[in-house]
Amino acid sequence: MKMTIVVHSGDFDKVMSALIIGNGTLSMGGEVTLYFTFWGLQRLVRGELSGGPLSKMHFLGLGKRMMRKRMKRNNVATPERLMEDFKALGGRVIACEMTMELLGISKSDMEERWIDVYGAVGMYVKETETADKTLFI
Amino acid sequence: MKMTIVVHSGDFDKVMSALIIGNGTLSMGGEVTLYFTFWGLQRLVRGELSGGPLSKMHFLGLGKRMMRKRMKRNNVATPERLMEDFKALGGRVIACEMTMELLGISKSDMEERWIDVYGAVGMYVKETETADKTLFI
Amino acid sequence: MKMTIVVHSGDFDKVMSALIIGNGTLSMGGEVTLYFTFWGLQRLVRGELSGGPLSKMHFLGLGKRMMRKRMKRNNVATPERLMEDFKALGGRVIACEMTMELLGISKSDMEERWIDVYGAVGMYVKETETADKTLFI
Questions:
Q1: How many CB atoms lie within 10 A of CB B80?
Q2: How confident is the model at residue B55 (pLDDT cuts 50, 70, 90)?
Q3: A80 in Cβ contact with A50 (< 8 Å)
Q4: H/E element, C18
Q5: How many beta-carbon pairs below 8 A join chains A and B?
Q6: To the nearest 10°, the Cα dihedral for C43, C46, C49, C52?
Q7: Long-range contacts of C52-58 (CB under 8 A, 24+ apart)
Q8: What confidence category does residue A62 fall into, taking pLDDT thresholds of 50, 70 and 90?
Q9: How far apart are CA C91 and CA C127, in angstroms?
């Protein structure tokens, strides 16, 4: 199976869901491409994946610190670790150029080691043409 | 057709959309699996599907009581009824174990008659491998 | 490829994402059907696609006026223009009748030139049966 996921949301829990599903699919032999756009794209700015001013203060009704503690206790990986695993498992990341232009974000602001390619919606569509599973998160 | 839907959101209107699409697909001969996770999982706690402290106070700009009234007048089923129909039509429900562990929810807290199986993302991926339609809600 | 997109959200950025992905797919020879329901349906009321009382005041942390300015400077089309392009490229729009009934919206309130057909979830499922890509936005 091949899955493409549009990561439009920048919500902490939604980005985690994208990465958990992505890693699960890769682990079971699938192919996965994440297309980060709009609020999701902002999570690829250095230091923003789980921290920074953009992060949600509440997660499942818990404060972020409490959440981190419970995640650790339950061996749930942090978003950074999930992303590292995603790349190590062969996952592919496209960063949306339109969002970068709209927000005045340059490549030097980005966590570049996570990004395979910068592209527009046409690149997403091309990837999706050969995918048999598609999600929008 | 076989559809899998990740129910990540716990918003009243989103859960309703998931169930309406699920029931529509089942009614037309399709197969549907719902994977409840994060906020969506919390809706499977007893009494939380449309009531309880987690419910949104506003729905399409209307109060919840007004919404219920209009739904009734227009013969739109409640979420509980939609879920009963979903099960009666042969729909399948997976409850995300990771979310339960993170939030300290046990099986005895859950509306167990709606749940076919408790599982992790691997179970979702396995179900999705044979699906030709996939949604994330 | 054939894609169906449920436009459940009425958020300015989400509707834009739906149209950008839709237009990208149509431009590359695909077929696309948008099913507007719940908050998304409200965007098809005359004057509501990007303006009106329903519009979000903030977009990516910018005010709406600033956003419009940056979009113009970066040659990003407005939602209205994206919708016109979507129709010109052969995209198909279904408006959810259940939402209209629930909210007491009549056809005369709608931007009728954008709507191909009024229908319920069964029409969405029928369209989706022959689709190989599905999104819920």
A1: 15
A2: very low
A3: yes
A4: helix C12-27
A5: 62
A6: -100
A7: C54/C10, C55/C12, C56/C11, C56/C12, C56/C13
A8: low
A9: 13
Whether B135 and A137 lie within 8 Å, measured CB to CB:
no
Q: How high is the pLDDT of residue A64?
A: 64
**Arithmetic mean of pLDDT, B86-101:** 97
Whether residues B122 and A28 touch (CB distance < 8 A) is answered with yes
* A3: closest chain C residue by CA: C133
Among C3, C98, C134, the strongest candidate for a mutation testing the B interface, having the largest count of B CBs within 10 A, is C134
Residues of chain C with pLDDT below 50 are: 52-57
CA distance A30 to chain C (A): 17
Name the residue in chain B with its Cα closest to that of C129: B1
Residue corresponding to tokens 């005359």: C46
- Beta-carbon separation of A125 and C60 below 8 A: no
Q: Is A105 on the interface with B (CB under 8 A)?
A: no
**Which residue of chain A has the CA closest to B4?**
A133
Mean pLDDT in residue range B114-124: 97
Structure tokens at A101: 């232009």
| Torsion sign over Cα A113, A115, A116, A118 | negative
ipTM comes to 0.91
Q: Does A132 touch chain B (CB under 8 A)?
A: yes
Using DSSP bridges, classify how beta strands B62-63 and B92-96 pair: parallel, antiparallel or unpaired: unpaired
CATH code assigned to C2-136? 3.40.1260.10
For A31-40, what is the mean pLDDT?
96
Is residue A83 within 8 A of residue A115, CB to CB? The reply is no
User: Would an 8 Å CB–CB cutoff place C112 in contact with chain A?
Assistant: no
The C-alpha atoms of residue B134 and residue C2 are separated, in whole angstroms, by 14
The domain ranges of chain B are: 2-136
Which pLDDT belongs to residue A19? 97
